[in-house]
Every structure is written in structure tokens, then in C-alpha cells.
Amino acid sequence: MTTTPKSLRGAALAAALLCLPVLSLPGLTSGPASAAPVPEEMVSRPAAKLQGLDKITARTSTFTIAVGETKALGSLRITLRACKENPPIETPETAAFLEVIENKPGEQAEPVFSGWMFSSSPALSAMEHPIYDVWVLSCEGD
Prior knowledge:
Layout: H1 6-23, E1 43-45, E2 47-54, E3 59-66, E4 70-73, E5 76-85, E6 94-102, E7 110-118, E8 132-140
Antiparallel strand pairs: 1-5, 2-3, 2-8, 4-5, 5-6, 6-7
């Protein structure tokens, strides 16, 4: 027989006691049947609606960009690689994969951002730039 230190036995007992009330609740079932349905995949769309802000002039611009297309916002060149959204029965969420390059006159083009941006949480994956902000509003098209 192996001996277990008292501190470990106490921790195991505390964990078991904490789980006991949850497991004995009436109507509570375990497994995927009781969980909210999870979509198999987000739906791909052919375009995205983005909004840009020039922090110097406080001007905003809203524009639609197709997948594979590049649009200019000041010195930025924004390319949309993908736009996906949840199905209508799910919580609204839009995600767009953007590549942003800054092309200043007389200088070599410099990557500013490459990644997914989410409409519901713009700060989660934000583009860091001293002059411009860009964020995703929605996907467009069927």
C-alpha cells in the first residue's frame, strides 16, 4: 500500500466535494447533447465591408473590398484574403483575414498587419498604426 501525503489527500477530497453538488443537480446531463450547438464552419463570403479612420483628420471611410482585391487608405494598401461569418442561427460574428502594407513615397513598402480581424472584438487583433485604424464591419455577398 502506498501512502499519500495529507496535503494531497486533502486537496483531492476538496476537489471531489466541490464537484459533487454540480454532478448531482437534477436535469443536468453531461456530454455534447447538453451543450449549445457549435457550427461546423463559418460561411465564406466574397467580400467584406471595412471602415478606416484617419486619426489626423478624424475622417472615416467605409468601403467594400472583394477577396483578393487591394484598396488604398492613405499610404496603406489593404488586401482582403478571406471573409467568413457565422451562420444566421448563431451569434453574429464576422472575421476577415487582412494584409496591410504601408507604401510611403520614396521608401520601401513595409508590412503593417497580417491576420484575422473580428467584428465583435476589434481590439482582439487590432492593427497598430500611428495614423490609421482599420476594422471589419461585416461580410458582403452570398
